[in-house]
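Subject: two folds for Thursday's group meeting

Dear M.,

Sorry for the delay on this. The cluster queue was jammed most of the week, so I only got both jobs back this morning. I'm pasting them in the order they finished. Each block is the input sequence followed by the predicted structure tokens. Could you check whether the formatting survives your parser before we put anything on slides? The first protein is the one we discussed after the seminar.
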Amino acid sequence: MPEAYIVEAVRTPVGRKKGSLAGVHPADLGAHALKALVERSGIDPDTVDDVMMGCVDAIGPQAGNVARTAWLAAGYSEAVPGVTIDRQCGSSQQAIHFAAQAVMSGTNDVVIAGGLQNMNQIPISAAMTSAAQFGFTDPFSGSKGWVDRYGNEPVDQFYGAELIAKRWGITRREMEEFALASHDRAIAAIDNGHFAKEIAPIEVGGTLVDTDEPPRRGTTLEKMAELKVLMEDGSMTAAVASQISDGAAALLIVSERALEQYGLTPRARIHHISVRGASPIEMLSAPIPATEYAFAKTGLTIDDIDAVEINEAFAPVVLSWMKDIKADHAKVNPNGGAIALGHPLGATGARLMTTLLHQLERTGGRYGLQTMCEGGGLANVTIIERLG
């Protein structure tokens, strides 16, 4: 089967809630990542076959196929198409999968995959809540078939996180210790310049933004312990959840023919792509069976994986995954995760892959695994092999 290769991967810094990127149009965020990708790779933008970008809550400035808008906002050819993908939090990881599939099938040779999100402008679940003003029901309780199957249990990420914490016996203290480690790792990565190569600084209002804003310096377990729980009788607090944020990321994925034709150097080979599902009520536990499925398909084990990026939507998502997969925390989110670095929904999958690639290159690792929980009880898994 033909191979798919990653030639370049770049991202914007992640902006925090009410931070530097809050006023930037989502299409301009995406355009910034796209321009940086084209410039760094040296690819002729006219040779791109398709632009696939993830975005959740595609309303307002994120509506109207924002992948296409971002490409045009970057100033590139009108002949190059674009498509916006919504697989909830895994949207841009799915964009990577679709790009790889297009290349591996021989349909395309040069594809850009990425994602963008401005959560300050379009809050999480805005597409669902905005529909209510037009008299539409939510996508779950309004379905007879859904209610017949799942009853009226809440379809809610916080509820799902609480269910996971209880099922796996994860305490609030364990979650807070994990969250603190995420901040500590992210701050250390920033201070040691680990993100410098993967970030394309962006100028906003005359100020150059070149550093991720969400990590909290000086946070402590004592401060976390003071926070109120998010749900009655629960153990989850804001301290152990991902942060509202803004950002974009993009990767160049090409065929072997494109490597030769355009003189490109591959940095990684996409070794495996898959997506699996689990309970939509528990919602966030699917990374576990999805990872087990990926290992069964490839013959790899967690011992073969040198670095893992699993999205820290909530601390129990990663803690339960590490328990069942028996993963060493030392190689899981080694530069921190979304609890510290933020989770710009549609962009996170591409951001994680960008960070994973750079981590493998920095440490000399061979295999990297990425997975993340997604609305509807889904999880993508991507395994890449560093080249060179």
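Second protein, same layout:
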Amino acid sequence: MPSILDLVGSTPLVEVTHLNLNPNVKVYGKLEGHNPGGSVKDRPALSMIQGAIDRGELKPGMKLVEATSGNTGIALAMIAKAVGVEIELIMPEHATAERVKTMQAYGAKVILTPSERSMEGSIDLAREKAATGEYLMLNQFGNPDNYKAHYRHTGPEIWEATEGKITHFVSAMGTTGTIMGVSRYLKEQNPNVQIVGTQPTEGSRIPGIRRWPEAYLPAIFEPERVDRIIDISQEEASTMARKLAKEESIFSGMSSGGAAVAALRVAEELEEGVVVFIVCDRGDRYLSSPLFEE
């Protein structure tokens, strides 16, 4: 029988049929909420923890520590429990209650940092703890095992599911691991596949998508691997998340709504093509937030 770790990946594609108004273009969402931890972050969480164990970086008695906006923390909490390692997760205090409680349900210790410091404050505290030598910080923003998970699995799954017909790949950009890994793989198969990233407009706050200050730009991000970046407003992402649920029966969060906005915008511009975007997680992570309130 498979363990919980064996269930990570192999998520389905579903066609967007009502919101896509271009009959000559197929638009598909990759439903990452089907991972056992409920999001795309299960993939890099497994890859990073397994990599640290294999390389001997995670020594007996050490704890893991990581700064997270939510989904990565849940995934790390699940994987850490499965392999018998203690973990502390640090996140901004504006995180939804569902995320905090889910991490705690897996046995993780959760530390909340002031909202005004955003993710940067959480990262700083994680670095301070790691500097004591008692913790290993996985550093999802600079750990190659993050994007390698998507190079090894997510990219090949998309290529196979579309029978190599994909023309455009669209992803939110947070740690940028997903877009970096998938870009590497798809470009090796067909250099003409266009890679499209999304980031928030100035002043917008979209969980899972960031416009990073230069000092905190993820070390794994290589801008040349992204052909185009589309700015998405908080209102656009929220509205699309609600539309995905009501019109496509795709229940997801705000970052998935942002990716869908970009994917449908790309589809409108094309004469023909196959567009795939990442549906990062499930909408039940946001029920305590105003996201699904009209």
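Two things I noticed about the second structure. The two ends are 44 Å apart (CA to CA). The CA atoms of residues 242 and 292 lie 6 Å apart.

Cheers,
T.
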